[in-house]
């Protein structure tokens, strides 16, 4: 009988024992690092309401310098740490993060409601991830995907300025790529008062199946890297985003007035005539935007000069606009035409990408 009890106990404990042999858990002060044969998972608190989640393969690395997050990792105190069989739990006192030692999936809870206690439902739980090798020419990296499980009545907002007219992105697919009319931001906010900042700069696709699964996929990334922000309201979640990326000063009052823009103004005379007519009609307006082709022709694309035949006196034109209490804004493109001096100089030093754009211009490497 004693032998049978010991055998039963050994069989009962075997899965957890095997798991602890294949899963290393390291307490790192403000969080935890979990090492598994296929994936490393790291969770670190940046403050009581912000957690950074990183995942990378054993062959990869978590080394990365963010281009948008300026908040440095703090030496947080008071982070609690518990191992509970098949899960690891860390808590800041405001939110708790539960990580599965079986598959590395992460769940986020309000403080006081971690798994294993009487609790509210999780704010958000992951539902699988993928890190796949990709090769582009002589370069190789990974494509990364993280899937989350949403509640049925949850709304998702954010992602920058898209043109398709949706507000709530449930059941929608959005490509997060800067284009002529789209200014995308990989940050979303939920009506459950949490946010996700997906810290990746390659082509990214947000996808929601309209039922329960939401995913973020990026074409290239050395690792999965995102920040979970919890708040009491959507405003407080957005405040967390500002903590991470920096507080942006407000514009001058004029920027909140009416702006006049169109496809483009062809000449200096046209700009001044439009401005004069607005003042004659006493219509309130604070800003006029000069869009493309003030350089006169595709081969001069965005040469950062006014063509002398179309705009013979740009300084005098701008002075006249200022005297009429206008601000004047000029469109600058991330591409330059072959006839321009800036094209020739950038090409000489290797700053231009090789593909030619839809007009005969080339894009420049803004990160060089």
Textual characterization of the structure:
The chain is α+β, with helices and mostly antiparallel strands and 368 residues long. The chain is 17% helix and 35% strand. It is built from five helices and 23 strands. The strands form four sheets. Strands 5-6-7-8-9-10-16-15-12 form a nine-stranded antiparallel β-sheet, with no helix packed on it. Strands 1-2-3-4-17-14-13-11 form an eight-stranded antiparallel β-sheet. Helix 3 packs parallel to helix 4. The longest helix is centred in the first third of the chain and has 21 residues, at 2-22. It is elongated, with a radius of gyration of 27 Å.
Report the structural category.
alpha+beta
Terminal-residue CA separation? 74 Å
> pLDDT below 50 for ≥5 consecutive residues: which ranges?
1-22
- Helical fraction equals 10-25%
Labels describing this entry:
9-stranded antiparallel β-sheet; 8-stranded antiparallel β-sheet; alpha+beta; 368 residues
Topology at a glance:
Elements: H1 2-22, E1 24-27, E2 31-35, E3 40-47, E4 50-56, E5 80-84, E6 87-91, E7 95-100, E8 106-110, E9 124-136, E10 139-149, E11 156-161, E12 173-176, E13 183-190, E14 194-198, E15 204-208, E16 213-218, E17 224-230, H2 234-245, E18 259-260, H3 268-280, E19 287-290, H4 314-323, E20 327-330, E21 335-336, H5 341-348, E22 352-356, E23 362-364
Parallel strand pairs: 18-19, 19-20
Antiparallel strand pairs: 1-2, 2-3, 3-4, 4-17, 5-6, 6-7, 7-8, 8-9, 9-10, 10-16, 11-13, 12-15, 13-14, 14-17, 15-16, 21-23, 22-23
Short description:
This protein is an alpha+beta fold.
């Amino acid at each position: 009988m004693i032998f049978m009890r010991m055998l039963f106990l050994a069989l009962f404990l075997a899965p957890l024992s095997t798991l602890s042999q294949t899963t290393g858990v390291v307490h790192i002060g403000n969080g935890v690092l979990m090492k598994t044969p296929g994936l490393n998972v790291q969770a670190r608190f940046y403050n009581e309401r912000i957690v950074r989640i990183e995942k990378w393969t054993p062959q990869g690395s978590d080394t990365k310098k963010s281009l948008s997050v300026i908040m440095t990792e703090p030496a947080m105190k008071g982070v609690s740490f518990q191992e509970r069989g098949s899960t690891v739990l860390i808590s800041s006192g405001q939110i708790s993060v539960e990580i599965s030692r079986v598959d590395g999936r992460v769940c986020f809870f309000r403080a006081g409601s971690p798994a294993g206690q009487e609790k509210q439902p999780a704010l958000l739980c992951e539902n699988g991830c993928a890190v796949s090798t990709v090769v582009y020419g002589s370069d190789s990296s990974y494509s990364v995907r993280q899937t989350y499980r949403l509640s049925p009545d949850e709304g998702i907002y954010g992602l920058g300025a898209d043109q398709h007219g949706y507000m709530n992105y449930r059941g929608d697919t959005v490509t997060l790529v800067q284009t002529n009319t789209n200014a995308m931001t990989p940050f979303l906010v939920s009506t459950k008062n949490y946010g996700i900042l997906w810290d990746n700069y390659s082509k990214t696709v947000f996808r929601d199946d309209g039922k329960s699964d939401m995913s973020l996929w990026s074409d290239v990334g050395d690792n999965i890297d995102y920040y979970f922000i919890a708040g009491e309201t959507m405003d407080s979640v957005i405040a967390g985003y500002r903590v991470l990326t920096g507080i942006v000063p407000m514009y001058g009052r004029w920027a909140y007035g009416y702006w006049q823009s169109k496809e483009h103004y062809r000449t200096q005379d046209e700009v001044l005539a439009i401005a004069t007519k607005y003042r004659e009609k006493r219509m309130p307006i604070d800003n006029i935007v000069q869009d493309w082709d003030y350089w006169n022709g595709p081969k001069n694309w965005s040469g950062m000069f006014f063509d002398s035949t179309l705009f013979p006196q740009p300084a005098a034109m701008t002075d006249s606009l200022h005297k009429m209490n206008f601000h004047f804004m000029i469109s600058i493109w991330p591409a330059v035409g072959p006839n321009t001096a800036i094209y020739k100089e950038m090409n000489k030093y290797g700053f231009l990408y090789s593909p030619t754009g839809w007009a005969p211009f080339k894009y420049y490497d803004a990160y060089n």
